[in-house]
Each structure stands twice: as structure tokens, then as C-alpha cells.
Amino acid sequence: MIVDAKLSKLQDKVKKGESSLTLSLSFKIQGNIREVFDQKNWERAYNIHDNVFRIIIEISLKEGRKAVLQNKFVRKATLFWTRSPKIPFRIWVSIIKDDTPFYPTTVEEAKSLLFDINKLIELNGYHLKRGSHEFSTDIKVSWGKHFYTNPTVITGRSNAVSIIRSE
Q1: Which of 1, 10, 23, 37 sits 20 to 30 Å CA-CA off 161?
Q2: Coil, strand or helix: which one is 110?
Q3: Could you give the CA distance from residue 56 to residue 67 in angstroms, rounded to a whole number?
Q4: How many domains are there within the chain?
């Protein structure tokens, strides 16, 4: 399930002539997937050549009921054989987040990198008309079948924030 979905604004007002509006979206993916994503299951999956876990995250920023911005991004966990002296296990994970690989040193850090989402959303302020605007996001998260999970689609919605466009 998607929990703690929070949309926050970095500014309350957008003035005429300002080109961008920045919003911040954060949420966590909780449930069975987070519990089974551990080192024992990584090793079992690696042994049957199930080496990449992909999460597809789709965000739809809405003004009222109208979608004003669609965004889709992927988080990946790649299992690999390691001989690092810092890691006491044979099979470990790297997390690819925003096209940057991360090498966590603990299982909890790996879960946090993969399942805790913080995303900045840039919106063109020129298209906003004068007055108050209310924004929210619809969130859809999906992943395929793996050794430790079945294909799943979960959805959620953030809170609403108000932005004022002034002259």
C-alpha cells in the first residue's frame, strides 16, 4: 500500500512573470513487498537468475479533476555477487534511483532507497490563470512477478495544496 502520500508546496504564491512552480511529493510503499525484500530472498532469487526488480511509478498531477502533468519513472534493484569486506553476504543489491546507482550497506538502507519516494515536480507557472488553484496527485505503483512477489498494482492519492496566482 502507499502510505504518507504528501504533496507540499515550496511557495504559496506565483507572481506574474514567474516561470515555474515547484511542488514536492513524498510517499512510502509499505506492506508485504517491503518485508520480503531481504537478503535471504535476494540470494534465493539470484540463484534462479531473477536478478532485477523494477518498480514503475506513475504520477498524475491534477488541478481539480484535470490532469496537468503526467510523470513516469522507474526504480530498480539489481542483485549481484559481491566480495566487499564491508558486506558479510555473498549476494547483495544496488539500487538505481534517478539513473544513479546506490550501494547500500544495510538491508534497511536498501529498502529505504527503493520504497521511500521523494520527487520534485516542476510546473510551468505561465499557464496558471489568476486566482486560487488546488493541486493533488494520483499515484500508481506497479511491479512484475519475481521469486518473492506476484505482479502487483497499487494506487494512492496525495493531499491537496492551494497555490495563488497573483498579478
Answers
A1: 1
A2: helix
A3: 19
A4: 1
pLDDT tens track for 40-76: 999 999 999 999 999 999 999 998 889 989 999 999 9
pTM assigned to the model: 0.88
- On whether the CB atoms of residues 146 and 53 are closer than 8 A, the answer is yes
**Which residue type sits at 121?**
I
Domain that residue 102 falls in? 2-166
The grid coordinates listed for 157 are 492519492
Which CA distances in Å does 27 have to 13, 18, 33, 81, 127?
A: 24, 28, 15, 31, 27
pLDDT digits (tens, 9 = 90+) for 4-35: 999 998 877 777 666 678 899 999 999 999 99
Contacts of 18 (CB under 8 A, 6+ apart): 125
